[in-house]
Amino acid sequence: MTLLITGGAGFIGSNFVLDWLAQSDEPVVNLDALTYAGNLQNLASLQGDARHVFVQGDIGDRALLDRLFAQHRPRAVLHFAAESHVDRSIHGPGAFIKTNVEGTFTLLEASRAHWNALADEDKAAFRFHHVSTDEVYGSLAPDAPAFTETHPYEPNSPYSASKAASDHLVRAWHHTYGLPVLTTNCSNNYGPYHFPEKLIPLMIVNALAGKPLPIYGDGLQVRDWLYVGDHCSAIRAVLARGRVGEVYNIGGWNEMPNRDIVHRVCALLDELRPSGEGPYTRLITFVKDRPGHDRRYAIDAGKIERELGWRPAETFETGIRKTVQWYLDHADWVANVQSGGYRDWLATNYSSR
Ligand code: NAD
Ligand code: DAU
Fold first, then answer.
1. Any idea which ligand is nearest the CA of 223?
2. Is the pTM of this model over 0.90?
């Protein structure tokens, strides 16, 4: 029994690999291209652990996929690999189409070839679990009900459009070929190993460096926030007990405007690492908005709770405290990811705002 995980050196994927191997002896083959977002340091604690086989490679490489399927014969694929940052998709959408659409297509085809050749019992047990996002549903009016699994797809950014396309491919591979797929659409994650291009880690590392905290537009955009460990437990539940062909929304029942998130992060830093120059909120700077910025996301996570008994274990209060503390305790990790490429990205995204 083996899992093939794609993108397991990224933020959520690495949390999932660590979490999985903390609870199970089932080995993991971790296929990751190690783009700017992939970081083997996240998995340093698994060095020498025979249950973790890391393979650097691209999900678009069919020959490599065929070799991995033949060699390891995974009973499931957990597909995390993606280009994941909305702002980067605005500056350069091509990589998003390549990995999220074409890469998912190639992975589906390789999975289908593997699955087709399995004996009946293994065929029935095989799963292709596609990790997707709430952004495919588009933007909600302030008083509209939260996204359910039947909400129409209305993606608004190149990132969300590419993820929506991948969701549709996964659905079609089930309906047309019978591939036993599961899809989960999750809201904004936060927690350890989150690359500091995204809101929460960017605010923590900028505040600690005494740099501006850039809030896009009026900062009243609303997101639902989920601690990454809860996302991992939800994926485990869906993989184990989810109904084949079904979609499950995953969320934290925790809608918050960006401004409130930034204030909460500042308040925790004031408590845990006071700056001496006054409250961190003094660094907040309102900057030019993200083009096409979705105003509100909200997840109705009722189906996964009713069918699989999953609910998040962390509240935002407990999760964000753990997260801020993790960044304070891992200054070396932060320093390592703030490489030349990271600095180039900050200049690209923020210098003209
Ligand atoms: P991330 O950007 O931190 O990590 C992505 C990983 O995929 C990296 O390790 C990268 O090296 C790898 N990768 C990229 N292109 C690849 C390719 N062509 N072949 C192999 N590996 C490749 O992303 P994340 O935040 O961990 O997100 C993981 C998944 O979860 C994505 O599919 C994303 O759409 C989805 N998701 C993310 C969030 C969130 O809040 N971060 C929420 C919901 C869903
Ligand atoms: O909803 C799930 C999605 O959440 C995932 O699918 C994506 O992979 C993930 O990146 C995340 O997308 P967002 O665009 O919501 O995350 P981000 O952290 O980039 O931004 C969160 C909010 O904060 C958003 O409204 C934009 C705003 N923001 C972001 C940055 C980086 C700022 O105001 N300032 C910033 O500097």
1. 2
2. yes
